[in-house]
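Hi again,

Forgot to attach this to my earlier email, sorry! This is the prediction with flavin-adenine dinucleotide bound. I've pasted everything inline since the attachment limit keeps bouncing my files.
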Amino acid sequence: MTTRTAQPRTSVIDRIGADGPVFSVEFFPPKDESGEAELWRAIRRLEPLDPAFVSVTYGAGGSSRDRTIRTTARIATDTTLVAMAHLTAVSHSRAELRHVIGSYAAAGISNVLAVRGDPPGDPLGEWTAHPEGLTYADELVRLVRRSGSFCVGVAAFPYGHPRSADPDSDFRRLLGKIRAGAEFAITQLFWEPDGFLRLRDRLAAEGCEVPLLPGIMPLLSAKTLQRGPELSGAPLPPGLAERLAPYTDDPKAFRAAGLDLTTELCETLLAEGVRGLHFYTLNRSLATAELVGRLGLGRAAVSA
Ligand code: FAD
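Structure tokens for the complex follow:
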């Protein structure tokens, strides 16, 4: 359905767990016309399943950043979906950040995921703040909250952020972001539930009730299995690689087995009472739609 006017400003927090568990999806801004067409096919396929919200990541370069603003704005105006834009502090002055936040507000976007971002080029390279910019995500949370009526989320790391001295100090930083005004957190992807559940229990023990949404990357290819743990810092559970080993040379069978494993992970998380699952889609829709159907989430739950 095409509406062409901005949707009423529904906040992500209103959509999380209001009537049982939900799902949400993450896209990245497309680089060219064919990427744009692929993204919109994915959005249109997922729209009828009623994701709680749809987020668009914020890239490192200027043109990619413009595409984030345009894509998120189009989701807010041309679809029935609740849009959330990501925003990073890296390479921006405070004035530039205020300008982007203003563009989001003007486009009818009232949900922002405030993350620090990584140094352009080398994610693990030395972090240098813009001379007139911010250093940590908690400062960005405050800036976005001060700049208007936004619902703000932050990133969380079940196994600690790769730069943190230890998981305990990283946990304190997460609490700091929430105390700065974040209303929910989305985690880095992971492969077994324990780290996520420990983090969630730890937040609860601190009296912190903001929803913690697990970030789920469907395990569809041998490449994801190889690179995922390296990129996320999350360990592979014992036996997982062995379970997938017979399918390494058979992409179709690998995908089927990987989807089963992802379903099992999601089922465990839902049985543990998570309020939503956030899917990293890589701008595709089929695997997410299949998982949502298997798990009975979104519109699948209504029509079941
Ligand atoms: P911070 O919370 O600032 O933490 C960074 C490091 O500093 C951590 O080690 C933390 O422990 C430490 N720290 C935090 N506060 C303090 C403090 N006050 N004093 C001392 N140390 C502190 N990247 C993009 O470029 N674009 C995106 O759209 C994007 N989206 C993401 C979405 C999700 C769900 C996740 C999990 C990550 C995303 N990222 C994105 C990646 C993210 O930018 C990086 O992982 C980044 O390195 C950390 O961001 P952060 O917001 O957690 O940073």
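The chain has a mean pLDDT of 93. The chain has one domain: 12-303.

That should be everything now.

G.
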